[in-house]
Amino acid sequence: MADCEMGSVPKALRHRDQSNAALGVCGWILVIISYILILATFPISIWMCIKVVKEYERAIIFRLGRIRGGAKGPGLFFALPCTDSFIKVDMRTISFDIPPQEILTKDSVTVNVDGVVYYRVQDAVLAVANVTNAGSATRLLAQTTLRNVLGTKNLSQILSDREEIAHSMQVTLDDATNDWGIKVERVEIKDVKLPVQLQRAMAAEAEAAREARAKVIAAEGEMNASRALKEASMVITESPAALQLRYLQTLTTIAAEKNSTIIFPLPIDLLKGIISARG
């Protein structure tokens, strides 16, 4: 950890050292001439020298091509009209959409994936001095990172582990843009579009799985019902009076349905007695 911090400090101070470098004889002559012109045209020149940056902005001043100090702002700062130029840098969080990328997954499935990235400028000097266009470079890097990360995942992992994939992308982007003064705060996977044929196959597979579960549940219900009927028959066999009560319960149920014809089941024992009496 200490090695990383020691290696990163010179990068951050490199541009500060440039501001302290000597301008040379010609440079100092031009600076002195600029001051003389300001004094000669005072107070009109003061409106050309005083600049303002807002609370969320920073100004990087270049004096004869060299960075003068660090980032200025917010508020007022002074710039010579002839020798100084400045660039404003927005320090607010910026978001951009990653265009849909056609990606071949690890299990050879082609999908279209898009996302969104949130980042902000952490070091205005590095964002100006180390990269031509920090925003454009971050966008291109995000597209490449999305393809590289998802190319190592299976389709099932892409569909189920979006948060893990987004976090992996965020860490990778943050490490890559550190030298640009960019802090990647958040990455989100927005949508994963599958081919139509694959969607149909997955829908058929899901439907088959549901039907299989329904059949298993129905079979378990039949098995439980048969066990209950077996236990009931054993109870009725042990007690003939229970069979009579079951007959009466059946008649009550039939009568409640207002049927015109009612079949009255006679006990088997009674029928045996009648048959033996006739014989």
TrEMBL record:
Biological process terms in GO annotation: host-mediated activation of viral genome replication; positive regulation of protein targeting to membrane; positive regulation of viral process; regulation of monoatomic ion transmembrane transport
GO cellular component: cytoskeleton; cytosol; endoplasmic reticulum; membrane raft; mitochondrion; perinuclear region of cytoplasm; plasma membrane
Keyword entries, A-Z: Membrane, Transmembrane, Transmembrane helix
TM region(s), chain numbering: 21-48
Principal subcellular localization: membrane
Domain Band: 48-206
Protein name: Stomatin
Family note: Belongs to the band 7/mec-2 family.
Lineage, opening ranks: Eukaryota, Metazoa, Chordata, Craniata, Vertebrata
Cellular location(s): Membrane
Pfam families the UniProt entry points to: Band_7
One Gene Ontology molecular-function label: protein homodimerization activity
Gene this chain is encoded by: STOM
